[in-house]
Amino acid sequence: xxxxxxxxxxxxxxxxxxxxxxxxxxxxxxxxxxxxxxxxxxxxxxxxxxxxxxxxxxxxxxxxxxxxxxxxxxxxxxxxxxxxxxxxxxxxxxxxxxxxxxxxxxxxxxxxxxxxxxxxxxxxxxxxxxxxxxxxxxxx
Length: 140
What we know:
The chain has helices spanning 7-18, 58-66, 95-101, and strands at 42-43, 78-79, 85-89, 102-103, 108-111, 114-117, 122-126. Helices cover 20% and strands 17% of the residues. 11% of the residues are buried. It is an alpha/beta fold. Residues 1-31 are annotated as: Disordered.
């Protein structure tokens, strides 16, 4: 069994092959870029497909780790008693790098050194490594 294209689809394909690629008009001293080389941003969803509060931020975390960022307190979100989840890195975040690489929904805001998701009450930023628990003054 073979697949065949309709005559109109075949005509369109031939026309596409004959059309030259569009090139950006840059100043004479700049190299010309093909449109296929344009950078595309990774879109971050507002919610996780599985309904979790943090899974939609995994591409951001993986990207930062690939850039050399080191997790501060293990490779997981740490939640405080109020429910705020924080994924901390030992280095301050380069927010401009994140803006260049990702497209964020309105519920995720970027501030100097911090990404905050107000919908899920989680954030990514520079964290403090886990400290050993200190004893209370009345404990021996």
